[in-house]
Amino acid sequence: MSKSPPAQRVIPIQPLFAAEPKVYPRSVSGLFQRWRWGLVWFTQIVFYGLPWLPWNGRQAVLFDLEARRFYLFDLVLYPQDTIYLAILLVLSALALFLFTAVAGRLWCGYTCPQTVYTEIFLWLEKLVEGDRPQRMKLDAAPWSPHKLALKTAKHGLWGALALWTGFTFVGYFTPIDELARDTAALALGGWSIFWILFYGGATYGNAGFLREQMCKYICPYARFQFVMFDADTLIITYDEKRGDPRGSRSRNADPRAKGLGDCVDCGICVQVCPTGIDIRDGLQAECIGCAACIDACDQVMDKMSYPRGLIRYSTETAMKQGGAWAAIARRSFRPRVLIYSAVFLALAAATAWSLATRVPLKVNLERDRTVLAREVAGGEIENVFRVQLTNASETPRRYAIVADGLAGLRIEASEPVAVPAAATEITTLQIRAEAGAAGPGAQPIRVTVTDLADPSVSVTEEAKFWMP
């Protein structure tokens, strides 16, 4: 009699990520929300308006990759100035360490582009579909002409803003007036179209759909923020001692008589959170420090005639030991903050000094490699060099070029070289020396380029003069 094979155990497949419900942030008003919208207006006026600001016959800020020039108001930078980009990155990192150590994720909550554009997209969504209850009801309803019209209008507004954002972004790398004319004439180049659609699509997807997922799973800042936090970092906190035990009650009820804290467990702090967390569970990586929960809770406390500040900006030390803002402010000047501040200020000051004293002239001197040296009429020895002069200012200049370092060293038929504003000129130098000025071999010389109108604009380059 044959035996039936043993039943195999079926192991269910577990998804890598648990599905999360969509977050519908509720509208809120208050002090911190006004700060957020003030910064939204400020950042977007700067971003959208700066490319249109004229400056010396061009736009004020232009990163002209084709001409390899970066214009920042009166400052003209070239590829040789990449040291300033490196310094900018170091300063950004130091600022990140400093401000995070002092006040947590204020950048994320108030000025991060992801936060700013999500706030704008949410405002457009509310404008078309209504506030949180209306949006939830609309999404749960079956498709109808009314729902289709609302969704079409919302996505149309989102798409228009995203495309305008992409257009503005490209306008920082291509003169925006030319870009506007080409767009109006339907004559945009392929790369311009690609980058407008790419950046516009990224804005549309990130602010319209990813939203809190970007902050929770994609942005690396949330992952390592706790490394920069300490017990004296200013964060959004829930006063557990005052708020718990939580529970609902009538407005006129005495919470102490019922054995309750000040938290009425209304859940509004969760409803207004753009990442959908409950701040009452403690500090979480998903908290972006936007303070929407503070505004919401303060409104509830006002309605209940309770003191404000059940949810507030504070520190772990202050929450455990108590202490007013004066004590929190004193703890801000702790060693790590002072070290970050000193290094940041020193590097920023050195960079500012370097830019202020920067000579707006770049000289690149190269030997003509076709011949090392040759004897010319009169018995002199001649070396030929190519010199590239870059006028890193927006004023046309004329430069005199002289050479020294050997007896009788001179430049044959040397004439001032005119270089237009923010331009480059290449000229050939026929440098001659007396035959017995030095022994055979390479001899060090100096070539000095000086602005005729402003002698302070002068650069000296060293070279080797070959004697046979």
Multimeric status of the protein: single chain
- What value does the average pLDDT take? 89
| Beta fraction | 15-25%
Low-confidence parts, pLDDT < 50 over ≥5 residues?
A: none
Biggest beta-sheet profile:
5 strands, antiparallel
Percentage of residues assigned to helices:
40-55%
Tally of individual domains? 2
Q: How many helices does DSSP assign?
A: 16
Structural class: alpha+beta
- The radius of gyration over CA amounts to 33 Å
Terminal Cα span: 107 Å
Give the strand tally. Answer: 16
Shape: elongated
Draw up the topology in text.
Blueprint: H1 31-49, E1 54-55, E2 58-59, E3 61-64, E4 69-72, E5 75-77, H2 82-103, H3 106-110, H4 113-129, H5 132-140, H6 145-170, H7 176-184, H8 190-210, H9 212-218, H10 221-228, E6 235-238, H11 240-243, H12 268-271, H13 292-303, E7 311-314, H14 316-321, H15 325-331, H16 335-356, E8 361-367, E9 374-375, E10 381-391, E11 397-404, E12 410-411, E13 417-419, E14 424-433, E15 441-451, E16 458-467
Antiparallel strand pairs: 1-2, 3-4, 4-5, 6-7, 8-10, 9-10, 10-14, 11-13, 11-15, 12-14, 15-16
Explain what the structure shows.
This protein has 468 residues and is an alpha+beta fold. The chain has 16 helices and 16 strands. A hairpin with a 4-residue loop joins strand 3 and strand 4. Strands 8, 9, 10, 12 and 14 form a 5-stranded antiparallel sheet that branches. Helix 6 packs across helix 8. The longest helix is centred in the middle third of the chain and has 26 residues. The protein folds into 2 domains: 342 residues, no CATH class; 107 residues, Immunoglobulin-like (Sandwich).
